[in-house]
Design goal:
With 155 residues, the chain is an alpha/beta fold. It has five helices and eight strands, in the order H-E-E-E-H-H-E-H-E-H-E-E-E. The strands form three sheets. A four-stranded parallel β-sheet has the order 3-4-5-6. It comes from Leucopsar rothschildi.
Length: 155
């Protein structure tokens, strides 16, 4: 294909072969394939929201190996859709175990769910070993006629 024709075809569909803005191999059917995301150094952030309400559809151990946060927010509250996902919470343990440094990590669930309670109880020893703290808050914010749980985070 001539260069000018190749250039036109790539401009006609700018999203072609992109997954989350990253160029993928068109021969690969899986966006999680080894060629879809180039490896790089980990990214350190203060606060990270676990994607898609902590659903296992988009988050795996690789996320936690590469996105290293002091605080992770878990917002899932839909058991019918697997949110939060036990597999994602386990992926945090797996990913954090490979950091090579024992930085403090705080997990902030926005809802009290059976999945997070069971995970907390069943993996508590591993959490302590990995320096992971689960933040439970009994604080409530009242705004107009609504009240909801709240958590204060200081940096």
């Amino acid at each position: 294909m001539p260069e000018d024709e190749l250039s036109r075809s790539s401009h006609s569909n700018p999203g072609k072969n992109l997954v989350n803005g990253i160029k993928t191999n068109p021969a690969s059917n899986s966006p999680k394939g080894s060629s879809s995301v180039p490896m790089g150094p980990p990214v350190y952030v203060d606060l990270a929201y676990i994607p898609n309400h902590c659903s296992g559809k988009n988050t795996d151990p690789e996320f936690f190996k590469r996105v290293r946060a002091s605080y992770y927010v878990v917002s899932g509250n839909d058991a019918a859709n697997g949110e939060p996902s036990r597999a994602v919470l386990d992926a945090l343990l797996e990913g954090k175990s490979q950091w090579g440094e024992n930085l403090q990590v705080t997990l902030i669930p926005t809802h009290d769910t059976e999945v997070t309670r069971e995970w907390y109880q069943q993996t508590h020893e591993k959490q302590q070993e990995l320096n992971i703290m689960v933040l439970a808050s009994s604080s409530t914010v009242v705004m107009q006629d609504e009240s909801f749980p709240a958590c204060k985070i200081e940096f």
